[in-house]
């Protein structure tokens, strides 16, 4: 990584996607409560803490959903930091929330759902991409200011992180879900010199825990093993 430009201060904001969720029915859980990390998801969170725990991280913020709070917990413990919950980095809204897309099910095969699919640029079936970017970038810049001269971690969800990446790289929002480069517990890092974004890097500290057959799936339905103590929720 290049040094900061003369007279500027380098700050890095890492966008971390949550780990694998216990979701044996393949539900598109969206913003619903009650979806926790699977056993493998908890192991992913530990891997992230191992990978990032030695870095100069001074600020943590996260979506309020359980799977995100559980993902950030090991890193928060490793760094001795409190986590700031931020509604602006929550999962995107989606009219298909609660429908089944995994384990042999696909709600889009039902003709009654097709009326939502008329505009993939907005998109017509969910929260507008530009609104997602607006709230995400506001949270990112708040994290950057809090961590000035150091590093921050913002824990969010796949679509908000990927949409933000498309925005900062000047790319079209139109994309296929299976082409998102944002695997479970991946880290998309935004490097700033003062307020100016100078580069973006990407890493996958928990990649070895993701089954090869699942890495290219359009929808990650989550694990079938429940997390310890979850009682089948």
UniProtKB/TrEMBL annotation:
Superkingdom of the organism of origin: Bacteria
SMART domains: PGAM (SM00855)
Disordered: region residues: 213-233
UniProt xrefs under CDD domains: HP_PGM_like
SUPFAM superfamilies: Phosphoglycerate mutase-like
Stored Gene3D superfamilies: Phosphoglycerate mutase-like (3.40.50.1240)
One Pfam entry name: His_Phos_1
InterPro entries given in the database record: His_Pase_superF_clade-1, His_PPase_superfam
Protein name: Histidine phosphatase family protein
């Amino acid at each position: 990584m290049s040094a900061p430009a003369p007279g500027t201060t380098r700050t890095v904001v890492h966008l971390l996607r949550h780990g694998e969720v216990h979701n044996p029915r393949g539900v598109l859980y969206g913003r619903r409560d009650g979806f926790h990390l699977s056993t493998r998801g908890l192991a992913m969170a530990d891997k992230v803490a191992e990978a990032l725990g030695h870095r100069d991280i001074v600020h943590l913020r996260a979506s309020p959903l359980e799977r995100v709070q559980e993902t950030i917990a090991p890193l928060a413990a490793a760094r001795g930091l409190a986590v700031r919950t931020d509604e602006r980095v929550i999962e995107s809204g989606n009219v298909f929330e609660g429908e089944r897309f995994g384990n042999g099910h696909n709600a889009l095969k039902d003709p009654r759902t097709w009326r939502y699919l008329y505009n993939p640029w907005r998109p017509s079936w969910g929260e507008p991409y530009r609104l997602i970017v607006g709230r995400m970038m506001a949270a990112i810049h708040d994290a950057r200011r809090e961590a000035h001269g150091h590093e921050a971690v913002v824990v969010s969800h796949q679509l908000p992180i990927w949409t933000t990446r498309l925005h900062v790289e000047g790319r079209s929002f139109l994309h296929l879900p299976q082409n998102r480069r944002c695997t479970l517990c991946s880290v998309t890092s935004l490097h700033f010199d003062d307020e100016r974004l100078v580069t973006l890097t990407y890493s996958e500290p928990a990649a070895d825990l993701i089954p090869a057959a699942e890495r290219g799936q359009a929808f990650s339905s989550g694990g079938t093993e429940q997390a310890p103590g979850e009682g089948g929720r």
